[in-house]
């Protein structure tokens, strides 16, 4: 359980306290980072990087705020920082800002959370990050554009393309599932 003593121990760099805080919030942090990561190994890297930031900035934590919200912000920002670093390493996909959001159906609502995460992880870094920030974390395109240093149009385009890719992957998954079911009959 999170206690003021545990937080104070972490601030004093007590390894036992840090280990306990890590143990308490690892699963929560992993669920956040998995949405942004390409795979579980990358998510573990994000979680560990995020906890380094937690431990080095814990004295800044406002005890009036929810600790879950505070650590969530750190994990999301760590994922965004990772995304920015990846952009520098790889060439960004060609983006077309003229796309409008046409997707009014919510085909993703029929998926289990784990299935959705597996599909989202297959998206490119750019698409995955914008999709998570907009569709899951509730940021506006203006906020996303500012966070990622991209235009609002690029944010909208990335979201549109992410949804199109997810629909395509979902359709492929459904076809595969139907084929497997017909083989079993």
TrEMBL record:
Residues 114-166 form the RNA polymerase sigma factor 70 region 4 type domain. Residues 21-86 form the RNA polymerase sigma-70 region domain. Keywords: Sigma factor, Transcription, Transcription regulation. CDD domains: Sigma70_r4. Belongs to the sigma-70 factor family. ECF subfamily. This is RNA polymerase sigma factor.
């Amino acid at each position: 359980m999170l206690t003021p003593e545990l937080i104070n121990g972490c601030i004093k760099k007590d390894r036992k306290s840090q280990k306990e805080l890590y143990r308490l919030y690892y699963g929560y942090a992993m669920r956040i980072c998995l949405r942004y990561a390409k795979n579980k190994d990358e998510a573990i890297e994000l979680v560990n990087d995020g906890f380094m930031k937690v431990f080095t900035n814990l004295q800044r934590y406002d005890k009036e705020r929810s600790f879950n919200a505070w650590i969530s912000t750190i994990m999301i920002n760590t994922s965004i920082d990772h995304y920015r670093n990846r952009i520098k390493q790889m060439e960004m996909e060609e983006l077309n800002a003229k796309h409008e959001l046409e997707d009014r159906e919510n085909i993703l609502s029929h998926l289990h959370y784990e299935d959705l995460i597996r599909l989202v992880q297959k998206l490119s870094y750019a698409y995955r990050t914008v999709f998570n920030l907009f569709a899951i974390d509730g940021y506006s395109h203006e906020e996303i554009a500012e966070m990622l240093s991209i235009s609002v149009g690029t944010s909208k385009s990335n979201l549109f393309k992410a949804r199109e890719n997810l629909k395509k992957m979902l359709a492929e998954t459904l076809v595969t599932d139907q084929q497997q079911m017909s083989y079993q009959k």
